[in-house]
Amino acid sequence: MIKQVLKTMIAIIVLFSVAAYGNFLPSKASAATSSIRLSSLSPDSDDGFYTSYWSDDEKFTDVFGKKVNDGVGLYDDSAYATYNVAEKGYSSFEGKVTIDSRFVNGDFGKSVIGFYADDRLLYEKPLSKSSGVINVNVKLPKNTKDFSIIVKEKDGSKGQHLIVVQDGKFIKGGAYLSVPDSSYSSLVTVGDADSSSYLDTNSYHDLQDINGNLITKGFALSTNYYDSGLSYSTFSIGGNGYNTLETSISLDSRYVNGDYGKSVVGIYADDYLLYEKEFTSKTPIQKVKVSIPKGTQNVTLLVNQIRGAKGYQSVTFNQPVVSKVGSSYKSVPYTALPSTIGDNASNGVRESNLSDFGGIIRYSNGTLGTSGLIFESDYEGDAYATYNLSDAGVNYFKAKLALDSAHLQGDYGSSTIQLLADNRVLYSKALTKSTGILNVGVQIPSKTQEFKIVVKQKEGAKGYHNVVLGNAVFQKLPVSAKLSASRVSVANNYNQNDVVTVMSLAKGDVIKVYNTKGALLATSKPVTSNYAKISIKQLGTAKGNILVSRTTSGVLESDSVSVPFAAEPVPSASVAAKQVTIENNKNKNDLITVKSLSKNDVIKVYNSKGSLITTSKPVTSNYTKISIKQLGTGKGNVLISRISTGKVESTKISVAYKAE
């Protein structure tokens, strides 16, 4: 049918006045309302838009065949009409929506209509013969600039529907739509700064969700590589203060019946992952709302896909909008993908990031990831990648570690992964079929120059494993405050456990003690007061140093402080039995005499079970006499030890005594 546009400009102003009553009646103020008919206004921009008549002698009808005397029509793949309503005082819009009865019997495809205040969807409805005549009554946010009616249509065998908006009018003087945000923009309006395989509703009218409903404003991502690949769109939002992104994500219903492969969707704020989910033909529409961190320059929505026998799935994003709600922002650490840091040297490694596809990120259970690293050795040797961190400002590396499920069945040899900081091994793991998916995180020591990931592999009959580090990122995380050496004391004890005491701690702090080579000696339990005592079997007999760190709850481990300790004390010389005489007296105190002593020696006497009986005063000459009330009437033994100045107690020697 040839489309003929006849636009009739009719200006009808209906004024309502408030009758004035006699002064003797009490007065009550009320808000006056008035309305402006939609058909009396001309759109500021339009396409596929008609007023009053479909052709010279054909008025619009509703779906039941009744003539529409006041209406506008929209007919096209992507028809719309936009009205500038800025400062017009319109608070709401009301009317009816129907399909012209001449375009319903038979296959006229699919249609959807949406009403928008700027980028904000106020109402959206798929239309068909069974829709009847639908009442629409929507409030507009205050300060709305443009009101738009958008229609998307997909042809049937007989053409398309003619959509009629009947008795449409703007209302003045009523209540406005209350909105929580101070700014609100569709990503379609923002426009893609960089993209691959990106299709939006400005150019494509037939994007739809998994239920088969057309989308009035949104976009789709679908890979066009041979067997797997990446599609994405990056939007530049820096400087606008947006703190929220929301959209509805779905597979397009045209690409779910049969084998269309697999898809995983990711949403990133710069390099920080906000959302990730794998979609199948049974995944319903996902309403997603994520917080955008402060300072975000770009948001990227991406899809990684594996091709099926019938092709690829198509992922649609309906009503993708960014907004500023309140004044708070999601707090996240600085995060950088490996490609952002940049590798110095590498072999046998591929990276999939937000714009480059290095290979499908697939874990041992077959699920997919949106970014990461893949390692596989080759004829040049081990697979590895090194990163210069001297000025990168990061102190943590994390990833999801697994073997690719496509390299598990059969003999793929063996693989061991190591994470190193300046050649110091931070993490090492041998990987097998039963390893599963591991969440790996390592703290990178301060002043690290080079971080290295290396995968050592032995080839099997079917080749090498693919070792996957999914969602691999470097981060800058907060670090616990470093201890001062003055708060740490070390008791290097003789013949018993050594003790490290740390003072002025916070509840929940954990203390770690290392030797000077960095080997862990002991870890305390979370402290319950303001200090910790850590027992260590032996630091050694000689003087030396230990390294002590603190980890506050929820924060990374601090740098270690070096603390010196003294050599173990020297034991005093043991007393010889011939130096001791014992008088087991009757009816008076027993007497123990110890000769050949040095000045200030102290003698201790124990019973045969090791219980202390008495301690002498420091001797003033070369012997001491120790009076004991009673050793007992029978014969027996006592244990004698000596403590010399600056030394610890000697070993105990046994000395026999006779019966009284």
Task: Characterise this structure.
- This protein is an all-beta fold and 660 residues long.
- Helices cover 1% and strands 45% of the residues.
- It is built from 2 helices and 51 strands.
- The strands form 12 sheets. Strands 1, 3, 6, 8, 11 and 13 form a 6-stranded antiparallel sheet that branches.
- It is elongated.
- It starts with 33 loop residues before the first strand and ends with a strand.
General form: elongated
SS-derived structural category: mainly beta
| Euclidean distance between termini CA atoms | 135 Å
Give the number of DSSP strands: 51
- Give the rounded overall mean pLDDT: 92
Approximate strand percentage: over 45%
Largest pleated sheet: 6 strands, antiparallel
Number of continuous helical runs: 2
Low-pLDDT runs of 5+ residues are: 1-30
- From the alpha carbons, calculate the radius of gyration and give it in angstroms: 42 Å
Measured as a percent range, the helix fraction is: under 10%
